[in-house]
Amino acid sequence: MSRSAHPAGPRHADVMTEGHYSAPAADLNVLDEKVWARTVTRDADGALTVGGIAVARLAEEFGTPAYFLDESDFRARCRAWADAFGPDADVFYAGKAFLSRAVVRWLQEEGLNLDVCSGGELTTALDAGMPAERIAFHGNNKTVAEIERAVEVGVGRIVLDSFQEIVRVAHIARSHGVRQRVQIRVTVGVEAHTHEFIATAHEDQKFGIALADGQAAEAVRRTLALDSLELIGIHSHIGSQIFDMAGFEVSARRVVQLLAEVRDEHGVELPEIDLGGGLGIAYTSEDDPREPHDIAKALSDIVTRECESAKLRTPRISVEPGRAIVGPTAFTLYEVGTIKPLEGLRTYVSVDGGMSDNIRTALYDAEYSVALVSRTSEAEPMLVRVVGKHCESGDIVVKDAFLPADLAPGDLIAVPATGAYCRSMASNYNHALRPPVVAVRDGEARVIVRRETEEDLLRLDVG
Ligand SMILES: *Cc1c(COP(=O)(O)O)cnc(C)c1O
């Protein structure tokens, strides 16, 4: 279907002026493989399948809304990152993107390490058998109890985020009679080209210690002076959903400069640098993510070059992809409930979930795509806004998209690329029951996080 075939008039013009408009794909039935998990395809009847199972069967067995995660895609992405970085680097999966016991086991089997940033994430990791030395502990306000637990179980590294924390971790390590491996998180003054609330390395923010004004150098000085801390490197994380490597280039250069200053002042060459995560994925056909191999090569070239010019031994690099591993591997399946055409504006399509299972659109103005997946359709494209069932007009899942004009209640639609920061940010708003995560692989589907029940809600309510 060509663009000219879709209804012209005010509706069309309105979206153009908002600037979110993109022409419908030539054929709405064609799934853009960039945004869908690897094993997703349409079967002979036109229904979407993942891991060889049709969505109608999945909806019948597991209900909607639900997240379906392509396990072989997840594992393939882990391997791609591990292979791309090779034996001289470490890949830490950022657990906050989505963490469950099954995920922790997959990470172990595929040779990845794990970042956690709370006691809850640490508990999940340990419970699923992740060796503590393969865990890094992050956060700008780790509690004393969390630090104690991390030190006791022997996490591989704690990433120090403030001057107070240097002293706090040192004290706890000393009282446990251990020398804790640590990194210092610095802010390098780079603002990644992404939404303000998810850009984290410019200076006006809560994370890290600024390189500017010699603050990071002072943090190194204090850390090196404490016997119970072993400073293994410098950490920097510049933002999220980043496509442009220029930010990493500046960040790596500044971190290497700090390593050179540390060598000059203290005579020590810190052995590691961690460049964080933040690599972008395709949410819509307009996004062009890089392959892990390209990213690894770009980062290691930058670090090698900078170290050569500073006459430093090249440190071991670590990276922390979260979204880039899990994001593309899952989609959310919804059932269409009501359809409300607003003359001259757009058609509101309400689904059985919403901001409780995907807050990113409301929180960051995130863009998503959507497709009719229980069948194909030859109907004209209609401009839609996919909204949830919550009591907020900002309860939007997909702001602007096209779905076939014959869409009807009971149809299943799916939003791809919801593996990261959707279930992990899900809420019980309106006492919604958080949806399950179902792993699908080679014709088998199994629940890895079950759907919440009303009993779960009432169990917490002890008044
Ligand atoms: C959030 C975060 C990550 C992961 O970010 P993605 O965008 O999911 O890759 C990595 N490291 C740190 C320190 C983070 O805060």
Keywords:
TIM Barrel; 21 strands; binds pyridoxal-5'-phosphate; alpha/beta; Lyase, Ornithine Decarboxylase, Chain A, domain 1; 8-stranded parallel barrel; 463 residues; 9-stranded mixed sheet
Oligomerization status of the protein chains: single chain
Q: How would you sum up the global shape?
A: globular
Largest sheet: 9 strands, mixed
The total number of structural domains is 2
What is the tally of beta strands? 21
Query: Class of the largest domain in CATH?
Result: Mainly Beta
Structural class: alpha/beta
Describe the structure.
The chain is globular. The chain has 13 helices and 21 strands. A hairpin with a 3-residue loop joins strand 14 (330-342) and strand 15 (346-351). Strands 4, 14, 15, 16, 17, 18, 19, 20 and 21 form a 9-stranded mixed β-sheet that branches. It folds into 2 domains: 3-70 and 328-458, Lyase, Ornithine Decarboxylase, Chain A, domain 1 (Beta Barrel), CATH 2.40.37.10; 138-321, TIM Barrel (Alpha-Beta Barrel), CATH 3.20.20. 30% of the residues lie in helices and 23% in strands. The model is unreliable at 1-20 (pLDDT under 50). It has helices at 10-18, 55-62, 71-85, 101-109, 119-127, 144-153, 163-175, 215-224, 246-266, 292-310, 323-326, 360-364, 454-460; strands at 41-42, 48-50, 53-54, 66-70, 89-94, 113-116, 135-137, 157-160, 180-187, 209-210, 229-235, 272-274, 316-319, 330-342, 346-351, 371-372, 381-387, 396-404, 412-416, 437-441, 444-449. Helix 9 runs parallel beside helix 10 (292-310). It is of the alpha/beta class. The structure holds pyridoxal-5'-phosphate (PLP). Pyridoxal-5'-phosphate is lined by residues 94, 96-97, 115, 138, 237, 240, 276-279, 320-324, 420.
